[in-house]
Amino acid sequence: MPAMFIAASSKFIIARCEGEDTPAKKLEKAYRKFLEINIFQPETPNIGIKFEISDDNIQEGALEIEPNGDTVVVNCDFVAKINVKSNYVDQFLDPKSKWVFGSASDVEGAIEGLESQEYEVKSFRGTQTETNYLIPVKTAKNIKGLK
Questions:
Q1: pTM of the predicted model, to two decimals?
Q2: Domain segments of the chain: what residues?
């Protein structure tokens, strides 16, 4: 798997989540802090190409995931090195790829501070409208390509 680089700089809040726990309570249960982001694929909207960002692969900057009252604040300002499967390299490097929030330390929910995008999913229950939250990123084959 070739190593590639990704940079992100944004701040957002996980305001609500499904279930009884607040985002902050769910974060307390997390065993480590990481950000999952996905390349959105319109032809298979529920199956994204997932990547995990954590202190283990951040080369510059930081990723902060912290409770704030009942919410969780995510502050991304990093360059990370990611091993990308060969069959995903083109999508990873494509500037037209849409990158979406997956979770922050397994905390998911309604997001404030990121652009939202609605899409339709067809299932045995019929067609449902879902929402993605777009994370602006830059990708490159080497760290110099991000500067």
A1: 0.89
A2: 3-146
**How does pLDDT run across 71-106, given as a tens digit for each residue?**
999 999 999 999 999 999 999 999 999 999 989 988
Phi/psi at 34 (5° precision): -155, 160
What is the DSSP-derived secondary structure letter of residue 92? H
Residue 109 CB-density burial (10 A; 0-12 exposed, 13-18 middle, 19+ buried): buried
Token digits of residue 120: 């339709």
* Beta-bridge partners for 99: 39
pLDDT for 45:
64
Give the CA distances from residue 62 to residues 11, 43, 94, 118, 135, in Å, rounded to whole numbers and listed in that order.
12, 33, 24, 29, 16
SS3 25: helix
137 Cβ neighbours under 8 A, 6+ residues apart: 6, 7, 8, 37, 99
Question: pLDDT by residue (tens digit) across 15-31?
Answer: 887 777 888 888 888 88
State the Cα–Cα distance between residues 128 and 47, nearest whole angstrom.
Answer: 15
